[in-house]
Design brief:
The structure holds 2 protein chains of 2 kinds.
Chain A lengths: L4 H29 L7 H8 L5 H14 L3 H13 L5 H11 L4 H8 L4 H34 L14 H20 L10 H29 L1 H11 L12 H16 L1 H9 L6 H17 L2 H11 L9 H8 L3 H42 L10 H27 L7 H11 L3 H9 L5 H20 L8 H9 L20 H23 L4 H11 L18 H12 L1 H15 L10 H15 L1 H11 L3 H10 L3 H67 L5 H33 L4 E7 H19 L2 E4 L7 E4 L1 H17 L7 E9 L2 E8 L20 H5 L8 H11 L3 E6 L5 E8 L10 E3 L4
Parallel strand pairs in A: 2-4
Antiparallel strand pairs in A: 1-3, 1-8, 4-5, 5-7, 6-7
Helix pairs in contact in A: 1-9, 1-16, 2-9, 2-13, 3-7, 3-14, 3-16, 4-11, 4-13, 6-7, 7-8, 7-16, 7-17, 7-18, 7-20, 8-16, 8-17, 9-10, 9-14, 9-15, 9-16, 10-14, 11-12, 11-18, 11-22, 12-16, 15-16, 16-17, 16-27, 18-20, 20-22, 23-28, 24-25, 24-26, 26-27, 29-30, 30-34, 31-32, 32-34
Chain B lengths: L4 E4 L3 H13 L4 E4 L2 H11 L3 E5 L7 H10 L8 E6 L3 H10 L3 E5 L3 H13 L2 H5 L1
Parallel strand pairs in B: 1-2, 1-3, 3-4, 4-5
Helix pairs in contact in B: 2-3
The chains are: A mainly alpha, B alpha/beta.
Chain lengths: 915, 129
């Protein structure tokens, strides 16, 4: 078999077809079976190995051949980061999951107050910084094809007439098509390109196997490590570190460490595509192990190549040219596919990652601004627009890469180009670290820091790479702009002795970090930044999903419209249906809760980035301006949560207290109402009874003509008696209610209460006589000067005495009356020897219409108003009426009245107030 | 010797008027003035009609009525209940307990006489089965 360009190109296309199939199957696999082995930590690790590009595959050998062990730093940096994953990577992954971060620009924008300006800056700078890196891949692929084409007489085949540039352009165009087919089928970056990751993992296996195969064949051909080293030593070659741990070492190690975080594609695979945080644990050893395997044969290949290949051969291509030279065409093709794998995986992922950033942070915001007032378009509008934006960015990114390749094609080495990109993206590192660990870092400072770092990078790292193709640049390099020597790109501020790489890294990162720190200290954060800073810093403490800076209200319809445009119809319907199910409301009348709006924002953020999602929802959610004010007030998310819960607690305690008070008031009202009903019912009953008798007898008198005179007299008497009863009942009712309302007015004047008692006894004599009750008079006070109304006092005493007589069921009923003066009080006691008042009735005997057990059956039962009226009267005389323990049995009522100080001169005391 | 009517009423005046009016109509009348006495009197006197007041001392008219309806011997006894106007609930309860007829106080004497006559003329036992 003879290798020709046609054959390798055909193989490459076939290989791409295979990758595409893998990606397709991978997508279907994860869709059908929830991930399966594609979500294993090893696939994750292999996908991270996209770090090893053709720079590693080809360039490391070249680097080893040129600069000794320096290439090792490119592996050491990431190893440090992954071994120490607990420190940074874990946080990054946690935050990105919580906040649905889609890219590195999104991460920084989100942390610094969802600043779109920062997102745009990071995106633009990333696209610029990555251009050399893309160019590197184009160059590697082109060179490898050229190497094969040049290896035999008819090698060029149909490439005849194509120069290196045309070939590179063809490669770039092919890559663009391939990436578009691969990466822009889904919109939601969080839906994670499982298919792509599967293809990348396969490529990782292919490139590792290819490199090891080449290494083994080199060992076989040359007879083992020993032989290689011996022969190299004989040829005067040595790959020992010349300047181990010099400034260049430190610089490139630092760059490699930052690249594993800051490179858009590394962020994409390590953070965004991560489906399980615990995968980091496996990757922390598996990824360094992979890199170790990749680097195992680099030195032997380099040494062997330097030894056997003709002088002037490009050491970058040893991996390919050694098998070719040895006539192992099959192995050479495998090596080519390995290198091609490295390049394609890098280009695909890098352009996917960058295109997400471009569409989310530049295209969508512009579109939102253009459509600020009218709607965003019809149903699928945003979706299609985002996809198109991504396709366009992919083309643009590859075009930029190609341009860089075109402008710098004079330079041979691969590694330096890669380091330029590394230095560029490393400018994000200070801001990222600040985002993760420094609460006070501000957006303004971050923007200024990244900008200044980037300017320094452009000046001292990016621009010098054009020196070989541009005399103007070369002049600036030599003498400085306009002859200003201290601005020479590789000797800024007179720092001359450093290696150019270390020089650029030092100045860019030093100024970057300084501006970030000083700027943050002198500038203030916006409210949203403050909140986001807290969210980022507390990410390992807080349960996910408890942050919601966007508050306010919106109708479900408006939200649905936005959601449908961005997420597509089905996803939006799913989301809203789920919410409706949770709240138990039909989703037409759904009132979106802040939690739901927040959730929606995160979902949208998954598609269009945090800043754009925020802007989009802000347009819909009314009161966003207010919400920012609201946010302003929460000095700190945690603090705010605490206050919130305390306020809630207070509010609910108040609510409880109010409810209790209401309950008490309600009970009282019910009781009063019930009492009123009972009173009315009692009155009606009390009135009805005499009325019935009166009516009955009147009718008898009216209808019975032949009644004898005696009956007639008797009936008339009964009518008379009952009407008197009726009258007194009504009087009592009126009297009591007037007393209770304070309408009865009388004058308490100085009287002798003993006289009233005598009169009362006299009145009751007849009643006592009729019922055969003996009235005994106990010890009596001599005289009792009190302030009272004699008639009212008499009424009370008569009521008490007649009760004692009427309700006495003893065989020989007795009533004893005693009075005395005691400690400024006049006391009258009326005691009987009846059955007394049972314990359970005592509290109720002063209630209206309450009649004791005996009272119910007594022949002349009263209305049950006597005692309440008496007590009311005594109270008006500033005295007390109470039931006290009687004789051995029976009841004893006691009236206590204050003695008036001076009988004659005491002023008349007016009691009561007119209504 | 069975009597025609037993009246259970605690108000002396009303009792007197009822006794006079019903006696005047030609029926033999006995009276009790509290709830406890009713059952004994019913058993003893075997009245054909019971005129029962609700607001009775010691045992309410409701309890008495319930007891009468619970006892096989007295179940068929027609009962005229004296209720008060406006005490709609009393009347409802009495109805549920099996009262046959109602007269509302204050009543016309003729109403009571008519009601008693209706109860006496009706073969009550037959109706209840």
């Amino acid at each position: 078999m003879t290798l020709t360009a046609d054959l390798v190109i055909a193989s490459a296309v076939a290989y791409v077809g295979l990758l595409f199939l893998v990606a397709f199957l991978g997508d279907r696999h994860t869709r059908n079976r929830d991930g399966g082995f594609l979500r294993s930590p090893f696939v994750y690790t292999l996908s991270i190995s996209v770090y090893c590009t053709s720079w590693t595959f080809y360039g490391a050998v070249g680097s080893a051949a040129r600069n000794g062990l320096e290439f090792v730093t490119i592996y050491l940096g990431p190893t440090l980061v992954f071994v120490g994953w607990w420190f940074i990577l874990r946080r990054l992954v946690r935050i990105s999951h919580d906040q649905r971060i889609t890219s590195i620009a999104d991460l920084l924008s989100s942390r610094f107050g969802k600043s779109n300006r920062l997102a745009v800056l990071v995106t633009v700078l990333a696209v610029i910084a990555i251009a050399p890196y893309i160019a590197l891949q184009l160059k590697a692929v082109t060179s490898s094809i050229e190497a094969i084409a040049g290896s035999s007489e008819f090698g060029r085949g149909s490439l005849e007439g194509w120069d290196e540039v045309g070939l590179a352009f063809g490669v770039a165009a092919g890559m663009a098509v391939f990436t578009i087919l691969f990466g822009t089928r889904n919109v939601d970056a969080k839906e994670q390109h499982h298919g792509v990751v599967a293809a990348i993992a396969l490529e990782a296996v292919v490139k590792l196997t290819a490199l090891i195969a080449v290494g083994l064949s080199v060992l076989y051909i040359s007879g083992g490590f020993e032989a290689i080293y011996t022969r190299a030593a004989e040829a005067g070659l040595s790959i020992h570190a010349t300047e181990t741990f010099g400034d260049r070492w430190v610089a490139s190690m630092l760059l490699a460490a930052s690249a594993i975080i800051c490179l858009p594609r590394q962020f994409q695979v390590a953070v965004v595509e991560n489906s399980d945080e615990s995968h980091l644990r496996t990757a922390s050893w598996a990824f360094p192990a992979y890199m170790l395997a990749m680097s195992l044969f680099i030195v032997p290949i380099a040494l062997h190549g330097l030894t056997v290949m003709p002088a002037g051969s490009n050491p970058d291509m040893f991996t390919l040219t050694l098998p070719l030279a040895a006539g192992h065409d099959g192995l050479a093709l495998f090596a080519f596919i390995g290198g091609f794998s490295s390049a394609t995986s890098m280009i695909i992922l890098e352009s996917i990652a960058l295109s997400i950033m471009v569409s989310n942070h530049i295209v969508v915001p512009i579109m939102l601004r253009l459509t600020a007032n009218e709607g965003i378009g019809d149903g699928q509008g945003v979706r299609r627009l985002i996809l198109n934006a991504r396709r366009l960015s992919i083309v643009l990114i590859l075009l930029l890469g190609f341009s860089y390749f075109y402008l710098t094609r004079a330079s041979d080495a691969l590694a330096p180009i890669g380091l330029i990109s590394f230095t560029g993206v490393a400018q994000f590192l200070p801001a990222i670290l600040a985002a993760l660990f420094w609460r006070d870092a501000s957006a303004k400072a971050a923007i200024a820091a990244i900008l200044i770092g980037f300017l320094v990078w452009v000046w001292s790292s990016f621009m010098p790479s054009f020196a070989s193709s541009s005399p103007a640049v070369a002049a600036i390099m030599a003498e400085g702009p306009f002859g200003v020597a201290w601005l020479r790109p590789q000797a800024l501020f007179g720092l001359e002795r450093l290696d150019p790489l270390a020089h650029a890294v030092f100045w860019s990162l030093f100024l970057n970090t300084t501006v970030l720190i000083v700027g943050s200290l002198i500038s203030s954060q916006s409210a949203l930044e403050h909140v986001q800073a807290a969210v980022f810093l507390n990410v390992l403490r807080n349960a996910p999903g408890d942050t919601g800076p966007l508050r306010g209200s919106a109708t479900a319809d408006d939200l649905f419209l936005v959601a449908r445009r961005v997420l597509g119809h089905q996803r939006a319907v799913d989301l809203f249906s789920e919410e409706a199910k949770q709240t138990g409301m039909p989703w037409t009348s759904l009132e979106p809760s802040p939690a739901f709006i927040h959730r929606l924002e995160r979902e949208l953020a998954g598609s269009v980035g945090a800043a754009s999602a925020h802007v989009m929802l802000s347009k819909v959610v009314s009161g966003d301006a207010v919400s920012l004010e609201e946010v302003m007030q929460m000095a700190d998310e945690t603090q705010q949560a605490i206050e919130h819960s305390q306020a809630l607690e207070r509010a609910s305690a108040q609510l409880r207290a109010t409810a209790e008070k209401l309950e008490v008031a309600n009970r009282q009202l019910r009781r009063v109402d019930q009492q009123k009903d009972e009173f009315l019912s009692q009155v009606s009953h009390e009135v009805r009874t005499p009325m019935t008798a009166i009516r009955a007898f009147s009718e008898i008198l009216l209808t019975e003509a032949d009644l004898d005179e005696e009956s007639r007299r008797k009936f008339v008497n009964t009518i008379h008696k009952e009407s008197l009863r009726l009258t007194s009942l009504l009087d009592e009712i009126l009297d009591l209610s007037a007393l209770e309302r304070g309408e009865r007015v009388w004058e308490n004047r100085p009287i002798d209460a003993e006289e009233s008692l005598d009169q009362a006894l006299h009145v009751c004599d007849a009643l006592a006589l009729r019922s055969g009750t003996a009235i005994r008079t106990g010890p009596r006070a001599a005289s009792a000067p009190v302030l009272a109304d004699p008639d009212r006092l008499g009424q009370v005493l008569i009521n008490l005495i007649s009760n004692a007589i009427k309700y006495n069921d003893a065989d020989s009923p007795e009533v004893e009356i005693r009075s005395r003066v005691e400690g400024g009080d006049y006391i009258v006691e009326v005691a009987d020897n009846g059955i007394g008042i049972p314990e359970e009735e005592r509290p109720r005997i002063f209630e209206k219409f309450y009649r004791g057990r005996l009272g119910e059956s007594a022949p002349y039962a009263g209305a049950g108003l006597g005692l309440p009226i008496s007590r009311e009267i005594v109270t008006r005389m500033k005295g007390r009426l109470e039931l006290v323990g009687g004789l051995e049995r029976g009841a004893c009522f006691r009236v206590t009245l204050p003695l008036s100080p001076e009988r004659e001169t005491a002023p008349h005391d007016r009691v009561g107030t007119p209504a | 010797m069975a009597i025609d009517i037993l009246i259970a009423e605690d108000e002396p005046s009303i009792l007197e008027a009822l006794t006079f009016v019903l006696g005047r109509a030609g029926w033999s009348v006995r009276t009790v003035t509290d709830g406890e006495a009713v059952i004994g009197a019913v058993r003893r006197e075997e009245p054909r009609v019971l005129v029962l007041d609700i607001m009775l001392p010691k045992r309410s008219g409701f309890e008495v009525l319930k007891q009468i309806r619970a006892n096989a011997a007295t179940r068929a006894l027609p009962v005229l209940v004296l209720t008060a106007k406006g005490q709609q609930q009393d009347r409802q309860i009495a109805e549920e307990l099996g009262a046959d007829s109602f007269v509302t106080k204050p009543y016309a004497n003729a109403d009571v006489v008519d009601a008693v006559r209706a109860l006496l003329g009706k073969p009550a036992a037959l109706e209840r089965q």
